[in-house]
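User: Second chain of the day. Same drill as before.
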Amino acid sequence: VQLVESGGGSVEPGGSLRLSCVVTGIDFNSYAMGWFRQAPGKEREFVAGISWNGGSTYYADSVKGRFTISRDNAKNTVYLQMNSLKPDDTAVYFCNTQRFWGQGTQVTVSS
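Assistant: Same format as last time:
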């Protein structure tokens, strides 16, 4: 099983980024997916989740109204659209399903 994130980078406060995670080795259509993040010196925390068919989504309070999780089951890909980014959003962002994790992609929000 492989989860490969991309789309991270550096952006100024108020900017936007779109993360992608391509999943191989499992029946992607059958599983819920999640995004987590870990800032320096902090524990990994939940950011957003989506059900197997995209019908249900879940968000941490800190990102509600700014981030949107979505998925394309035809492409085995889950996305995280991040708008109105803040310096507190700076972290390594990880894609997850079941016990499997990607390698992470760095997001830095700074002026």
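The first strand starts at residue 2 and ends at 6.

User: Great, on to the next one.
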